[in-house]
Amino acid sequence: MTGLFITFEGTEGGGKSTQIQRLAERVRALGRTVIVLREPGGTPIGEEIRHTLKHSQQNHAMTAEAELLLMNASRAQLVREVIRPALARRDVVLCDRFYDSTIAYQAYGRRLDLKTVRGIVDFAVGETRPDLTLLLAVSTTVSEARRLSRQTKLLDVPATGAEAHPVKLAFNEPLRDRMEEADRDFFLRVEQGYQALAVAEPGRIKVIDAERDMETVAAEIWCVVELVLLKS
Ligand code: TMP
To answer: How far is the CA of 1 from the centre of ligand 1 (A)?
Structure first.
């Protein structure tokens, strides 16, 4: 048995958190140890970086370059502090976003140079790459509706794993999210980025139509993951 690293990707509104929790329960039922993480975040340092990136009152002037580096600072910490030790113990690691988000959001969305972005990602992750990536795809309309509704009632509820590292987040009050303040064209480019990634790496990235009901999506995810688990 080897460790297994599975990442979940996609624009807002694809139901990633719910599907990750469901998958975690299912894999645990097989007797495997499962770690659920999120990016940016997942370590005490990473959660502070997440706050700076998304919610801090000081982040209005953040440049795309600073954003790229902070995303990857959080990632470099998560890889070394949590992911590598977990994989060495042969755990199953489920991560809500990983470096495909950087390609989609910072290279395509923010229009930073793709080669430079890839170089920084490589530095942050080294040899630690996902075995499987599930891209939960929803239409622009669904994603946009979800984003807008979240902007009015946003609460930053941490994923499991982040719970172990409570950082000074104000859980009781709505928090503004700088990432979700970008314009429509930005999110259209992010979607194009994900599509390009899926075409370039069909072996690793499996596109799941996430507009269907939760049970159907969960069943399809399980079909894909089961195959990979059997080989791990
Ligand atoms: P989320 O945890 O609610 O999905 O918020 C994370 C936000 O950060 C989301 O808008 C996507 C964005 N993001 C990037 O722009 N680049 C990255 O590398 C990662 C991991 C996330």
So the answer is: 31
